[in-house]
Each structure stands twice: as structure tokens, then as C-alpha cells.
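Bit of a strange request maybe. I'm writing a small parser for C-alpha cell strings and I need a real example to test against, not something I typed by hand. Could someone generate the C-alpha cells for this chain?
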Amino acid sequence: MANQTFASFIENNKLMSSGIKNNVDLLTARGLGPEYSAEYDGNIDEVENVNFAQERLKADLKTKTTEMATKKKALQVQYSQAKSIVKATVPKDRWLEFGIQDKR
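Reply from user aminoacidic:
Good idea to test on real output. This should exercise your parser:
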């Protein structure tokens, strides 16, 4: 599946499954009978379901990444405001209490 899209991979497998079903009388002797066909179809469905779940997780991850970036930016603004006020109000020798490492 190196240069093949997921959609074409699934389509190829569905075509193979259909071909097996349409030619079961020729293929059963070689192990591609109804049981094989049923298992094959089940695996195709399983791969499609897992892919759907993965795509949903990717979308959720993008949403959460955007949400986290927005909240992080807001927190950075609050931190900068608090740091400026502390530096203007509190003597330098007490800045470490606030986690401020600045020397000036």
C-alpha cells in the first residue's frame, strides 16, 4: 500500500471479494470458498471501521490542539500581565517567590 490511497486499497479488496463470490465454484477447491469469503468481507469491514475511528480521532486531535493553543495564548497574556505588575510593585529581591528569574 506504499503508493496506494486507502480508498483504492479498500476498493481493490472489495473487487477481489466480489470476484471470489462470483467465481466460488472455481475457487473453493483452492481454499477460497464461502468461509474464506465471509472472513475476507469481515476483515474489510473491520479495516473500514478502524479507519473511520482513526479519522474521527484525528479530527478530535486537531480540535483539541487548536483549543489548547488558544488557551495557552490566553494564559501567556495573563502571565505577562502579572509579571509586569509584580516587577513594578514588588522589590527585586522577592521576584523569585513569583518564579521571576529576571535581574532587572
